[in-house]
Design brief:
single chain, about 65% helix, 434 Repressor (Amino-terminal Domain), about 120 residues, 6 helices, elongated
Length: about 120
């Protein structure tokens, strides 16, 4: 978290959490549409089943390291970008899961009490 003297940390752009996390598939879908590449053609080129690619592009499947490397080979976009986006998406999604968030809060409370 970034802090600046005299400024509420919640008002610093780098500290904000988006209202809706962005799945890397959303970005990939826009990219292939912009390039005019069909999902079927890209799936074939990457050696994936069309259904698998479609699930990634529609945020129903995670972008794994292997998928990220396949996208890098096919589209020339650094695989690390997709891995970081997926990690960020997963973290934001987990934090929004109420039972899990409550569990995290309880663990933090217990850890603080132990100090």
């Amino acid at each position: 978290m970034i802090t600046l003297k005299g400024i509420d940390p919640a008002m610093i752009a780098n500290n904000l959490t988006p209202y809706e996390p962005t799945h890397p598939g959303d970005v990939l879908k826009e990219e292939i549409e912009y390039r005019g590449i069909s999902q079927k053609k890209l799936a074939s080129q990457m050696g994936l089943a069309y259904s698998v690619l479609n699930e990634v592009l529609n945020a129903k499947r995670s972008v794994t390291t292997k998928y990220a490397l396949l996208f890098e080979a096919a589209l020339g976009i650094d695989a690390g970008l997709f891995i970081r986006m997926q990690a960020s998406y997963d973290i934001q999604t987990a934090k929004r899961n109420k039972p899990f968030a409550d569990r995290l809060a309880e663990i933090r409370r217990l850890a603080a009490a132990a100090l």
